[in-house]
Amino acid sequence: MALKITRNKAAPLPGRCPLSECMKLLGGAWTPNVIWYLSGGARRFNELRVDIPGISAKMLTARLRELEHKGVVRREVRPTSPPSVEYSLTDLGQDLVPAILAIVDVGHRLKNRDQCSATS
């Protein structure tokens, strides 16, 4: 006999779900890494490539453009010869750093829990 599905008593979310919006932003491949390394200050493209081993130039370019378009990253062309470009976090990008730190903290706890259960 199938169980009856009860009606959800939680109030509906206003408009678009804010959690989904945030996770859509952070869920992109390499996105948390880019935000993490930019949280330490402005970086040039090649510095980010060194910071994030394994990311291709094409993927880094795509992530930086996407984050710039969404207002998370600021792109600034420096008037040097030859011109250089620096990327930094906007205020919105800085607001995401505590969320990433919380995820890292939970990740450490999960890793430690898994290591403890593996040795038991």
From TrEMBL:
Positions of the HTH hxlR-type domain: 17-115
InterPro entries according to UniProt: HTH_HxlR, WH-like_DNA-bd_sf, WH_DNA-bd_sf
Keyword line: DNA-binding, Transcription, Transcription regulation
UniProt protein name: Helix-turn-helix transcriptional regulator
Superkingdom of this protein's organism: Bacteria
Gene3D superfamilies (UniProt xref): Winged helix-like DNA-binding domain superfamily/Winged helix DNA-binding domain
Entry keyword annotation includes Transferase: no
Transcription regulation listed as a keyword: yes
Coiled coil: none
